[in-house]
Design brief:
Strand order of the largest sheet: 5-6-7-8-9-10-11
Number of domains: 2
Bound molecules: 2-succinylbenzoate, magnesium ion
Radius of gyration: 20 Å
Shape: globular
CATH architecture of the largest domain: Alpha-Beta Barrel
Strand content: 15-25%
Length: 374
């Protein structure tokens, strides 16, 4: 792919429902899109950073800065040619900033595949043309009654499993309420976003209480670096532990599995540094018989298209947070993803198979940077 121009496009999309986790509440998706224009084709990638460094160290202003001042200049120049397969190595001199790197690698990969008229799912070795959709439900301000109502709506819409966010003081009781309202057959899992202390008695008691509820998994109870703490408690629980924040690349996934810190891995292309590292995480887990599923970061249609293609690979044995666009936004920047019979269709067009439309993109645009000054 021969580069001609690149734009970093910051967009703000209001969420249809506020999204509260153990690390705070989001009401707007503050997203950063990377638009690469090459001689042969254009490509899009989404940087999934939140506005503040609350999920990991990364945040959108920082990503914008590191992309504009470090990553883009190392990788691209007008007239220079680049392959997605080389992006990781070429950017390895910059430490961390995986979400920013992932956005760039995704955009280059999209352009490269569009130039070759090849769908991303085929490139990734996907084996499905649609993927089952779960939904991630925040902690509602209205407490248990609002949670029950939200979940009823999602089940009515067809979502095949519910992931509920939990935090100190909003854990066992609301999950028990979901069990009594929707019964033992509800596919229910929880995500703590590292909100618990493995050495605090009250926290461990709450997690032990969740372990009684027949959950599909408990996601990231403790801090990202606490692999041994995860292993210690996972050994006592019957509910499988899944790691999200802890798994920053394929090597870390292998370490977590060898330490028995988890039995399930959440794959997010942003968190692991790109689509190609996501494939390596998938392959490492598959070799070990460990199921993976595709997480989400409230992506617009650009990041969602990547996630849905990734979720179509054979090791993705559990439903992901690959929800339909209307679960997040009244109007997405791309053609929306829709829920059909509990599934979303894997895009079949070249590259990621979705392109931001002019009108909604213009309406959502807040700021634009042209790092090559072209
Ligand atoms: O931990 O999976 C997470 C959203 C933002 C940051 C972290 C997480 C999430 C979600 C939302 O759970 C999943 C989705 O995109 O639907
Ligand atoms: Mg998570």
């Amino acid at each position: 792919m021969t580069v001609e121009r690149i734009d970093l496009v910051r967009v703000g999309l209001p969420l249809v429902t506020p999204f509260r986790t153990s690390f705070g509440v989001q009401t707007v998706r503050d997203a950063l899109l990377v638009h690469v224009r090459g001689r042969e084709a254009e490509g899009w990638g989404e940087c999934v950073t939140p506005a503040s460094p609350v999920y990991s160290e990364e945040y959108t202003d920082g990503a914008m800065h590191v992309l504009a001042d470090e990553l883009v200049p190392r990788l691209l120049a007008p007239g220079r040619s680049v392959r997605a397969e080389d992006v990781g190595l070429r950017l390895a001199g910059i430490k961390g900033h995986r979400m920013a790197k992932a956005a760039l690698e995704s955009a280059v990969l999209d352009a490269q595949l569009r130039a070759a008229d090849r769908p991303l799912a085929a490139y990734l070795g996907a084996t499905r043309d649609r993927v089952p959709a779960g939904v991630s439900v925040g902690i509602p301000d209205g407490g248990v009654p609002e949670l029950l109502e939200l979940v009823a709506g999602y089940l009515q819409a067809g979502y095949v499993r519910i992931k509920a966010k939990v935090a100190r003081g909003a854990d066992v009781q609301p999950m028990q309420a979901l069990r009594s309202r929707f019964g033992a057959s509800l596919r229910l899992q929880v995500d703590a976003n590292a909100g618990y202390d493995p050495d605090a008695r009250a926290d461990v008691a709450a997690l032990d209480g969740l372990d009684e509820l027949g959950l599909v998994q408990i996601e990231q109870p403790f801090g990202p670096d606490r692999l041994l703490a995860h292993a210690r408690h996972a050994a006592r629980w019957r509910t499988p532990v899944c790691l999200d924040e802890s798994v920053t690349d394929a090597a870390r996934a292998v370490e977590a599995l060898e330490l028995r810190a988890c039995r399930i891995v959440n794959v997010k292309p942003g968190r692991v540094g790109g689509p190609l590292e996501s494939v390596r995480v998938h392959d490492a887990c598959r070799d070990r018989g460990v199921p993976v599923w595709c997480g989400g970061m409230l992506e617009t249609g650009v990041g969602r298209a990547l996630n849905v293609a990734i979720a179509a690979m054979p090791g993705f044995e559990l439903p992901g947070d690959t929800s339909a666009s209307d679960r997040y936004f009244a109007e997405d920047v791309t053609e929306p993803f829709v829920l059909q019979d509990g599934h979303v269709a894997v895009p079949q067009g070249p590259g990621i198979g979705r392109t931001p439309r002019d009108e909604p993109l213009k309406a959502a645009e807040r700021h634009r940077v042209d790092p090559l000054g072209s």
